[in-house]
Design a protein that fits this description.
The complex is a heterodimer. In chain A, helix 1 (3-24) packs antiparallel against helix 2 and helix 2 (29-49) packs antiparallel against helix 3 (53-78). Chain A is mainly α. Chain A contains 7 helices and no strands. Chain A has 2 domains: 1-82 and 116-125, Four Helix Bundle (Hemerythrin (Met), subunit A) (Up-down Bundle), CATH 1.20.120; 131-169. Chain A is globular, with a radius of gyration of 20 Å. Chain A has helices at 3-24, 29-49, 53-78, 82-85, 94-117, 132-140, 144-165. Chain B is built from 17 helices and 4 strands. In chain B, the strands form 2 sheets. In chain B, strands 1-2 form a two-stranded antiparallel sheet. In chain B, a hairpin with a 3-residue loop joins strand 3 and strand 4. The chains are: A mainly alpha, B mainly alpha.
Chain lengths: 169, 468
């Protein structure tokens, strides 16, 4: 077992525990959100260990730092308590559906990622593929068209949210 | 003086200790780097608190804490009898610390205990972690173009490609401690403080990120030591004896101003201390915290101030360079003047002290602001962040691009000409936008009062509460 594998296993375990915590603490919205933060934060380190520095730091900055703060903000604004979330209305088919899709997803992931990973001793990218220079140059040359389209999408999102939030512009 | 070579050389011996050092050398070195960053901050925090209290009282025409630690020797001791030893109150923070340790730790009823307990720790972590990529010494020996020398091994803690993004990412995590403290305390004032903090930090992060992006664009790297290195280039790419500190470049001055304001907002300091506004929210998010838990919040605030000042020093103030003067280039062009070469080495070895001085200067600036400016109103805070700083930072982004292109194309005068032109265009645009954004509904039949002159005009529209 190489050091890289040990590091990966530790981080993956923490991330999985975090993800499980989101579901387990579903009744307490703030704790569920905090476990999601932990999961995102550790995922960032998984990216680091694979050599994808830019992706990892973006994961931490955007998901752990910005989006989850907004989640927490909304939860605190609404003052959500446990019993608000766990109200049952009628017959709940969500749970069996969730189990079905969950198992199917796990099978796919297991078959395509976990099995090959057993043979991988050092999964880190050896070249500079994950560094900001490489990502930036690819983003602005090969993928400049999708990049611009994405920026347009974000702009539409911004304008839309302003339209929703303000009655008088 | 190359530590890695020294460690390599150790491997020649057969000694078990030496062998262990060779294997664990990098790990030990990393540990030393962390300790060299964290320990000085931990030791300096009491000093900073003393400095804040003394400086603030001096600015407010008070005396401040000047008694603790003053010893008057009793008469029976020969020579020293009746003499006083003054320490200017330097021991006051230690007395405060002892007081905080010994105070009763009150935990309010019906709180979220786990989060309440963890919140101070979560607040402290990003405050210290933000220094992880901060270079407090030059990574290059004088007259050398390759990375080397003692400081390149001791600083920064992690010399990663994404140093600047790391600072932004960690500072964006800083909001959690405050928000969770506010939430877990089961107190409306605390919750209000937490909500204010999260809104404020999210708003000012954007402008901060944009202002740093401008500098990253100019230096062409996100690696902090490399950004410091870029600031040692000739000023504006033309003036060889001086260094190109980003504060001295036109776009960098704008960026630095934006970053400075955002930095104060990110650390929740006056005039942006709305999350803990004492006349509205008692103490905001840490209302319900007492004893050591409060002290941990306090320490986190000071560590964050210190390290943000460090980021400012590294990114805008040339890092560990004392003056924006390139002694190396002066020494190479005037080899007969020995003073220049001597200064280059002094500048290198005194780098950590210079950096510390710059951090202390930043702290002093924080205190000065607190003594000078009244707290912002909430809408003023949001307007400043979203309507002033963010657009300014975006415009600055364009200006940086223009500056880089024009200085490459036509040298320094081209750069300044384009900068002036850009300022003019921005000003005209601003005037037009301001005219468009002027609210017409306020001046018609609204209130116009001229206070200072004799002919006071006052038109007040009476509002009938029953009419919609």
């Amino acid at each position: 077992m190489t050091g890289n594998q040990i590091a990966f296993l530790v981080m993956a375990a923490v991330a999985l525990l975090g993800a499980a915590g989101v579901v387990a603490f579903g009744a307490n919205a703030v704790r569920a959100a905090l476990f999601l933060v932990l999961c995102f934060f550790v995922l960032g380190f998984v990216y680091f260990s694979l050599g994808a520095q830019l992706l990892g730091i973006t994961q931490i900055m955007v998901y752990a730092g910005a989006i989850m703060v907004l989640f927490l903000f909304v939860i605190m604004m609404l003052q959500l308590r446990g019993h608000d979330l766990s109200k049952k209305v009628g017959i709940d088919i969500k749970s069996p559906l969730a189990w079905m899709f969950g198992i199917a997803l796990f099978a796919v992931v297991f078959q395509s990622i976990v099995l090959p990973m057993n043979m991988t001793a050092n999964p880190a990218v050896t070249s500079d593929l994950g560094k900001p220079e490489a990502v930036g140059s690819v983003l602005f040359t090969t993928f400049s068209w999708p990049f611009e389209v994405t920026s347009l999408l974000l702009l539409i999102g911004v304008v839309g949210s302003i339209l929703l939030a303000k009655r008088r512009i | 003086m190359d530590i890695s070579q020294w460690i390599e050389g150790l491997g020649q011996g057969k000694d078990a200790i030496v062998l262990g050092l060779r294997i664990h050398g990098p790990t030990l070195l990393a540990l030393i780097r962390v300790l060299l960053l964290v320990l000085p901050i931990l030791m300096l925090v009491p000093g900073l608190i003393w400095w804040e209290r003394r400086l603030l009282s001096w600015m407010q025409d008070r005396i401040g804490p000047n008694r603790t630690g003053t010893v008057t020797f009793p008469d029976r001791i020969p020579l020293l009898g009746g003499k006083k030893v003054r320490t200017f109150g330097l021991l006051q923070p230690i007395a405060d610390g002892v007081k905080l340790f010994l105070k009763e730790d009150i935990t309010p009823a019906d709180i979220d205990r786990k989060i309440y307990f963890w919140a101070p720790a979560i607040a402290l972590f990003p405050a210290f972690a933000i220094g992880g990529t901060l270079p407090w010494g030059s990574g290059y020996l004088p007259f050398s173009e390759v990375v080397g020398g003692l400081y390149s091994h001791l600083t920064p803690v992690a010399n990663i490609d994404i140093g600047l993004l790391y600072v932004l990412a960690i500072s964006s995590l800083g909001v959690y401690g405050v928000v969770l403290a506010g939430y877990a305390s089961n107190n409306k004032y605390s919750l209000m403080g937490g909500l204010r903090a999260s809104a404020q930090l999210i708003s000012y992060e954007l402008a901060m990120g944009m202002s740093l992006a401008c500098v990253a664009m100019a230096s062409g790297s996100l690696r902090m030591p490399e950004m410091v290195r870029q600031q040692e280039a000739p000023l504006w790419g033309a003036v060889s004896p001086l260094q190109n500190w980003f504060l001295l470049t036109p776009f960098g001055a704008i960026s630095a101003t934006i970053f400075l304001i955002c930095m104060v907002a990110e650390t929740n300091r006056a005039p942006f201390d709305l999350p803990e506004a004492e006349n509205e929210l008692i103490a905001g998010y840490h209302t319900e915290y007492s004893s050591m838990k409060f002290a941990v919040f306090f320490m986190g605030e000071y560590a964050a101030m210190f390290l943000f000042s460090g980021v400012f020093a590294a990114v805008f103030l040339g890092g560990p360079n004392l003056l924006p003067v390139s002694w190396e280039r002066l020494a190479t062009s005037n080899p007969q003047v020995g003073f220049y070469g001597w200064m280059a080495w002094a500048n290198y070895w005194l780098g950590p002290l210079t950096f510390l001085g710059k951090c202390a200067g930043g702290i002093t600036f924080f205190i000065w602001l607190r003594a000078t400016l009244p707290r912002l109103r909430y809408d003023q805070l949001m307007n400043l962040g979203w309507k002033t700083l963010l657009p300014l930072a975006v415009v600055n982004f364009v200006i940086v691009g223009l500056w880089i292109v024009s200085t490459r194309a036509s040298g320094i005068w081209g750069g300044w000409a384009v900068f002036g032109l850009a300022l003019l265009v921005a000003y005209v645009l601003y005037l037009n936008l301001a005219a468009l954004n002027k609210r017409s509904d306020l001046s018609v039949g609204g209130r116009r009062v001229r206070m200072s002159e004799a002919d006071v005009t006052r038109t007040i529209r009476m509002v009938d509460p029953n009419q919609p």
